[in-house]
Structures are given as structure tokens and as C-alpha cells.
Amino acid sequence: MSIDDIKAPIEREMEKFERKFRDSMKSSVPLIDKITYYIVKRKGKQIRPMFVFLSAGICGTIGESTYRAASLIELLHTATLVHDDVVDDSNERRGFFSVNALWKNKIAVLVGDYLLSRGLLLSIDNDEFEVLRIVSNSVREMSEGELLQMEKARRLDIKESVYFDIIRQKTATLIASCCASGASSAGADKEVISTMRLIGEYVGIAFQIKDDLFDYESSSAIGKPTGIDIKERKMTLPLIYTLANGGATQKSRIINIIKNHNTDPKRVEEVIAMVNAGEGIKYAEGKMNEYRDLALDLLEKFPESAYKKSFIDLVHFTVNRKK
Questions:
Q1: How many domains does the chain have?
Q2: Mean pLDDT of all residues in the chain?
Q3: Range of the structural domain that residue 123 is part of
Q4: Three-class SS string for the chain?
């Protein structure tokens, strides 16, 4: 099923959202408008706003509050991506030059700050304090998750439990806030909002594990180089499993490569081959499907609707996507 098929029940809402999202970024400073136009023209699949609108549809009625919730999340998400590219010294984003590659780090950081402020003001100006609370907590957790990952990457001692803490904070918390804020915007009660938040968290964990698995697949299948996480010394689930369950010699070899030869393509390929030769991929796929099923089980509580069907399809899309 394609993303356009999944989008069908909220197609008009997504079109209206795109206009509102563009408007939310407007500035009297021409340079900001030029950069935000560049960002919008190179937008991704917009999975996060889709989760907001589908969650609102499942829990009640899509209204102006839903558009603001989706815009807030997309503004804050975009701000974090711009800042991430600066932190990672990355020159590409989705196959295009990153903002920092074209306008340098100082401007990129300031544009990220601008987008963050626009999101905060969008909520405050419309008294959307509950949605602001939900999303602000996610931004805090994302920062903590990134810093925890950096701290652990230095020592390469991430255990599986810590890995799940990191990805829950780094990735899952934003999708959780999409589902919770969508429910909140539709007038759902606290229990329903909490359930939707947990569904989003489970989907987000499955989403990140899928990203982990891309690192060990052939680049032709996914359109990006393999071994990126290894080069950046990120401890992903297939690698953590391989280190924990392989022999002492293999473990020593992998750690040595990641610490001292992580920029050598042949050595990185060697690590990828060791992970593929063991049970790491199969184990990670099993965990990914486990979290997908936890999300789908919780969704069973909600009445049948076109929104619910598309939400389920979107969950499956996150774990079956090719890139």
C-alpha cells in the first residue's frame, strides 16, 4: 500500500495543512523566507502530520486545533533536523544539500531557533497549552536521548535496555506526541490521550529499529550508503545483539574496528558481514514486529473507521518501507 492510499481519508486536510504550515513559517526577513521555502520544497513523506490527523479522526473530530498541533510538531521536528545536521556536520538531507551546507552553521542554527520559536508562539497565541506541554516534553526527551547516545557511543558499552531508552527518547517520543496531540486536539479525555501516546511510542520504537536495519541492507535497495551508523559509532540493535551473543574474538574484532577503523569502508563491510552472518538481523526484526503488534493491539480498543484503517496501514508502512 502506497503512502497516497494511506492518506486518502485525510487528503483534503493534508492539503490544507501544507498551506497552513507554510504560512506558519513566514517572516519579514527575506533570508528566512528563502531558507524555509527551500525546506518546504524538499519535505519528506510527512508521516508525522499524518499520525496527528489520523489520531484526531480516530478520537473525535478534526478541527483547527488539529492543524495547529500538526504545524507545531512539524515546526519543532524541522528545527531539530536543521540542528541535527549542524551537530552531525552533515551536508545532505534526503538527498539534497542541508541548510548548513548552503548557508553555513551559524545561519542554520538561527533558522532552527526561529522555527522552534514559531512553533511555541503558534500554540501560545491560540491557548493550545496542553498540546504545547505534550510536544515540549518530546523536545526535552529528544535532546536527552541524543546526549545519552553520545555519552554511550564513546565507551561502546550500550546494553539493550539502554538502547531502548535512547530510541524511546530520540525517535519514539515525537511520534508519541503526534498521536497524543492529535487525540487532544479532537477533545479526547486523558485516558484516551495516554493510550494514543503509548501507541505512538510503540510505533516510534518499531520505526527506529527499521532504520537500524537499513544499515545492514544493500545500498541499491534503499538508496543510501550502508554502514553509516557504524561509521558514526552508533550502537544499533543488530550490532548490540551480535556483540552480546558472539564469541569473545568476534566481539573484540568488532569493537576494535568501530573504535579505530570506522572510516575504513572494507573494515565497516566486515562488521556488516559479521552482523548479517549471525542472528542480529533476525532478532531486530522480531523486536520491531513485537512493538508493531503492541501498537496494533492497543488500537483494537477504538471503533472501526476509515481513519483507524489508514492508521493501521501507516503502522505497517513504517516497518515495511524501503527507505
A1: 1
A2: 86
A3: 3-320
A4: CCHHHHHHHHHHHHHHHHHHHHHHCCCCCHHHHHHHHHHHHCCCCCHHHHHHHHHHHHHCCCCHHHHHHHHHHHHHHHHHHHHHHHHCCCCEECCEECHHHHHHHHHHHHHHHHHHHHHHHHHHHCCCHHHHHHHHHHHHHHHHHHHHHHHHHHHCCCCHHHHHHHHHHHHHHHHHHHHHHHHHHCCCCHHHHHHHHHHHHHHHHHHHHHHHHHCCCCHHHHCCCCCHHHHCCCCCHHHHHHHHHCCHHHHHHHHHHHHHCCCCHHHHHHHHHHHHHCCHHHHHHHHHHHHHHHHHHHHCCCCCCHHHHHHHHHHHHHHHCCC
